[in-house]
Amino acid sequence: MKRKPLLGLCPIGKFVFSHEDAMKYKKILQGKLTDWDIDFVDLESVLPDGMVRDQKHVEPVVEHFKKAGIDCLFLPHCNFGTEGAAGMIARKLDVPTLLWGPRDEAPLADGTRLRDSLCGMFATSKVLRKLGVTFSYIENCSIENDKFKDGLDMFLRAANVANVFRKGTRIGLLGQRIDFFWTTIINESELLEKFNIEIQPLDLVTFIENVKTRVAENKEQYDAEAEAFRQHAVVEHFDSNEPLWKIYAMRDEMFSLAEQHDLEGFATQDFTSLVDAMETYDYYTLSMVAERYAIGCEADIHGCISDILIRRAMLGEAPGWLADVTVRHPEDDNGVLLWHCGAPESMMHTAEQVRLGKHWILPSPLAGMTHFKLKDGPITVCRFDGDTGEYKLAIGQGETMAGPNTLNNYVWMKVNDWPAWEHKLMQGPFIHHMAMSYGCYADAIIEATRYIPGLTPVELD
């Protein structure tokens, strides 16, 4: 599910220096944002020249951006800066704020200058601090410099992550905490009070009844889907397609619940009640649902939050997955196994195919467990967790590496210094579940924590 933040483009100028040059840079910025497919709202319909140049511009600008529902604010200083107006706009809007200005050219032949953007940003940064506004900053550089594009991209991702807590989200708890998993005991009230995270209880008995109804009403559709699935997957220990019907029906019921309750993710009681009632493991269901929604298996609500954060950092362009940090690499001290089941099929290695088989750890006659290796590439991991009223977010990056084959869904990850990671994670408040994604998003997630009171970043690398 794509979740791109809406940017409020608020160009800042001043009555001194070249207004024509400021307007030139405003137009260039608008063109760049359009070319880069960034969703933004500007001030063209609010101010005569679409640029803040006076203190009296504050109220109409704030009203306009609030009505548009912006998620974050960009204050490019196009020639100098009206710092009081910039500061008050940011304070009244109370959204993640970005400060930047184009690098000033050399003085003209007669010694005059068209802009003093750097000087203006120093003034505005002081006012932002004075008014208690948290802001991000891109180095004063040319608009064509990669630092500008990369910095803007990181800010948008950071704002998207931060708004999970600032604007809130809702997670569906399907079932209850597994009784012997003390690690997933959480304080639901604190999540709501501190972080605007709402837990929506979903009755497991009702879910099972609805799934059975879906199976009865959609056998023909599900059977055709099952036959198509068998063409590219290995399905073991299913004597008929009926277990697959139930897997698809569970998927559709979860999709329906997500729409009904406006959920961004699920924490699921995967075993044993649901498994016994369905007579199949539900992990391929979770694989399919995870393509669109965050999943915290084993009723891990903090794990689901971690998955949501990493998906927000990717702007919803690809799924995340909640993995177990399990064993160290047998030959490389900086390697570790990320393993579990129910990974999105889009994360599968190109040389693999989906296999549904038995649970190799739990003694059960049932099948439906997912088995496939994950693809190669750079990896970002994160874990939101807390206890005794203290919440932290562990963030790190690594690379996939060669390692022994194992069962279920897995990938071996190499990091810069695993013993250091291990010490930080072991000292808590973290557990063994970590959300992972492909790509490098640690900087954006770390930057996001600056906008989230009560959440401390733990930089693993």
User: Percent of residues in beta strands?
Assistant: 15-25%
Uncertain runs are none
The CATH topology of the largest domain corresponds to: L-fucose Isomerase, Chain A, domain 3
Helix content: 25-40%
CATH architectural category of the largest domain: Alpha-Beta Barrel
Strand ordering within the main sheet = 11-12-17-16-15-18
- Sheet having the most strands: 6 strands, antiparallel, barrel
- Give the distance, in angstroms, between the N- and C-terminal Cα atoms: 29 Å
Mean pLDDT: 95
What is the number of domains? 2
Count the beta strands.
19
Estimate the global geometry from the Cα principal axes.
elongated
Radius of gyration: 25 Å
The secondary structure category is: alpha/beta
Number of helices: 14
Identify the CATH class of the largest domain.
Answer: Alpha Beta
Structure description:
- This protein is of the alpha/beta class.
- The chain has two domains: 7-166, 3-Layer(aba) Sandwich (Rossmann fold); 169-459, L-fucose Isomerase, Chain A, domain 3 (Alpha-Beta Barrel).
- The protein has 14 helices and 19 strands.
- α6 links the parallel β6 (169-174) and β7 (197-202).
- α8 (219-232) crosses α9 (242-261).
Short description:
With 461 residues, the protein is an alpha/beta fold.
